[in-house]
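Fold this sequence, please.
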Amino acid sequence: LLVREVSSPNGITHEVIAGFRRFKAAKMAGLASIPVHLKDVPDEEIEQIQMIENIQREDLSPLDAASIIAKLLVYHKTIPRVADVLGRSRLYVAQMARLNVLIPPLRKKLEKKEITVGVALEIARFETEDQKFVEKGVGLESVSVARLKQWTAEHLMHTMDKAAFPVDDADLVKAAGSCLACPKRTGLKDNSLFAD
């Protein structure tokens, strides 16, 4: 337990900063005393300490983890810094942060475990309108990440009409030519580039 001394008009002398569940369990077990770490912690650090403790919980939902990481990013600014503070990988922090951009209906599906975290992460790569399109276009409740990737590649990744430049302009980058004729384009129907 992490505790700090406080002075309050109602006679409370100490405040639990971290370890609430252990404290509650000790009370339920009828323990008269428990070991604590007494530390002078400024008010502005308490929320961070509590968030770091909460993200360690085993029963934490992915959306709760995403929310905590979003708040920690306000304090620490970058994913590598948050990863260091949490003792988690940068990949974990980046993925959980990405869940914050899910549209509300997909957040509800993730919350109710109607979609997996993998599926949610795949959808979170897309802008809001594309997320809505994916939600309506594919049966999410039973889709695998691999099938979702295939579906989005067929229905979202091939649309060049959203490009901010004329895709048929062969002079845009003379060495490359027109996007529509590019053999490296993902939407090209000739799959010889990825023959395997």
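The longest helix spans residues 62-76. DSSP finds nine helices and three strands in the chain.
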